[in-house]
Amino acid sequence: MKRFLIGTSVLAAALQMGCERDVSQPNLEYAPDMYGSVPYDSYAPNPNTRDGKTLMAPAPGSIPRGYSPLRYGPGPEEATRAATDLKNPFEASEPVLERGKVAFNRYCSHCHGSGGLGDGLVAARFPRPPSLLADHAQGLADGQLFHIITQGQGLMPAHGSQVAPEDRWKIVHYLRSLQSPARTARKDTP
Questions:
Q1: Domain assignment of residue 166, yes or no
Q2: How many domains does the chain have?
């Protein structure tokens, strides 16, 4: 037993000394696959593609993962069609209204003002946007408001590329919360 322990100790010491590696040499790689391949730069010519370019456009008809395209074009007719087809997928809860307020203040208040009256900073030097508390705006369906935010209308540019669809729906709920005191005041007026 004593010989076995001494032999094992000597072998372990020899292995330990033999494990010292030269740091200037790479470690042994098992199945390196493509670790060592040299990639093409994005804008470099590539002899392996038909057009000779490395950076390729996505296949026609492909859409980003998690994205669902809006099937309505710009214009009032499409907004009217969206009014009947699109329904707000969110319930008007406190977190939804809070997120809608944050998104409204970030993307809409510079033109429409923080209260939706059309008195934002942009209105000082450019044509004043319509009040979102006016009768016309209150008569718009949720789907129509979503479409207008997405595609734009009149002088308002499209915000579909900047505002996520979930935030657009939450902005619609926030607009409704801004409009509700105005509706109540109008009903109470004789």
A1: yes
A2: 1
What are the angstrom distances between the C-alpha of 150 and each of 70, 104, 127, 144, 155? 9, 13, 21, 10, 13
Residue with tokens 């696959």: 33
Q: Residues with Cβ < 8 Å from 34, sequence gap 6 or more? A: none
Residue linked to tokens 């997405």: 150
> Is residue 137 in a domain?
yes
Which tens digits make up the pLDDT trace of 92-142?
Answer: 999 999 999 999 999 999 999 999 999 999 988 999 999 999 999 999 999
Phi, psi of 147 (to 5 degrees): -65, -40
Whether 120 maps to a domain, the answer reads yes
pTM for the structure as a whole:
0.65
CB neighbours of 81 closer than 8 A, spacing ≥ 6? 72
